[in-house]
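stage 2 :: seqdesign
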């Protein structure tokens, strides 16, 4: 799935949404997306000089509740 973020000046950034729990990656261009967790429901995505605060769901670590 691809997410497109449009800028007021007509520019845009495209991101691939990763299904492995690693968030996003830049879909085009030479610069990689850097992701920082802001809080339990937001991430900061930076590509070059562009920065975006985006909603996110954090995956929790699996807990083994089976008796053993």
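stage 2 :: out
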């Amino acid at each position: 799935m691809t997410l497109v973020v449009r800028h007021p000046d007509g520019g845009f950034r495209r991101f691939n949404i990763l299904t492995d729990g690693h968030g996003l990656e830049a879909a085009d261009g030479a610069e990689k997306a850097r992701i920082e967790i802001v809080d339990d429901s937001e991430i900061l995505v930076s590509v070059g000089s562009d920065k975006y605060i985006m909603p996110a769901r954090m995956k929790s670590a699996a807990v083994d509740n089976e008796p053993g």
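stage 3 :: structure notes
- Residues 2-55 form one domain.
- The chain is about 0% helix and 45% strand.
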